[in-house]
Fold this sequence. Notes:
It is a single chain. The protein folds into three domains: about 45-130; about 155-220, no CATH class; about 225-290 and about 305-455, no CATH class. Helix content is about 75%, strand content about 0%. The chain has 16 helices and no strands. It is globular and about 80 Å long. Mean pLDDT is about 75; it is low at about 1-5, about 285-300, about 360-365 and about 460-468.
Amino acid sequence: MTFGWRNLYFRLLSHDIKKWQTEGWISPENAALLLADKRPKGLAGRLVFLVGLLGALLLLFSAVSFVAANWDDMSRLSRLIWLIIILWTTFLVSWRLTANEHPRLAEIAYTLGIGLFGVNITLIAQMFHIDSHPPNGVLMWTIGALVAAALLRSKAALALTFIGAITWSMMEVLTYQELIHWPFLMVWGAAFGLTLWMRWSFANHLAFISLLIWTITSIIHYGDWSSHGTLSLFIMMFLLMLAVAFVWQIKNTQTQPYGFATWLERYAIIGLLPSLFFLQTLPIIVSRGLYAPGTISRDSNGSMLQGSFGWFPLTSLLLIGTVLLLVMSWREKLLRRLDLVFFVAIAASTLLYALISSPYAFETDGWLIAKETHKFLTTWIYGAAFLTMLIWLIAFGHRRGSDLYVWAALATFAVEVLYIYFSIFGSLLETSLFFLVGGILTIGLAYFLYRLHQRLEEPSTPASEVPS
């Protein structure tokens, strides 16, 4: 957990401990010991690091400004000497700080040094009029950061490596129209291997997020897939992440309750719910949606994975893998049978809905179903199923003790209700009826959650009171 969450937890715990002390449940001495043990540590160190990082950035701009101010008056040799001196001085200071056991200050100096390395690449290219492929400069800087991270075991350099790698890949794909930028995986793999070697848990998140960005960008950029099909692939990908997190937690529940498996589950939920909502609202939010026929090409360009229907094979493979992992979690008692049914239903219905909503499905003439039929399916059938799923997800998250499930589902529930309202109702009488039905359903949901909470919080009967 981040320091902010630890600080919030400490404030809530302090309030409870004072209450317990007032009620006589714990002594003042024990209360003081508990507060001392749970008090968040490291605030001063973090503050020093952040302020020092700002200072390093100011020094970086100062060095660049100094060189730029005297640029025209220097010979090429003088410029190179100044750039090299500033760069190596920074790394020598970093090395001395590491040797003197000042790791936070050393990381600040490493950040400054790697930033100067990037500035040197740019200035030298300008000085010698090197007008080559611009992403190559970013790649050179990224490799330099990777080498520095490996030789110096610098966390700052490793973090900058992931940032540089995804920036390089995005430049190749978005600016130079690279279809799928496979070389990114080589640099990413080297950085991830270094992450495992250094055993830095935060870098796992950087590795995952950068790989996820690359995957999503590659999926969007590849082929001429329909919008519904592309989004269904994202939904299946998030469901697969969720299933992997469940299986991962089967073996890690006792030893690593807050490991990366838990974070993978959070990432999956954060991506899954908006994707399911956008799948329903695509005809409104995109110009190439269902109600704008004739804008999507039927040609496959010679590949089964290209064309508006090319998403189907990949989505089907992800569906099979997701179901297998969910069944494994159910067999290990991590999921109940109802949970398994809901997750499998989400996966299967997403694939079916995307098939119905995609152009030229099953080689029919145009669309599989009529426009008005699809509007009814989207608003009423999909909307009702989505709301039912969200109610189940609230109960599921409550049972697992995860606030993220509960709050994410409640927020999505509110957005979905508003979407249905603006899609269907208009007059005051319809509005009154809508809010009447919505209020009754919401009160019923509150009562259901109350009964569920009461049942979960009900203490078990002591063995001595069980009738023989």
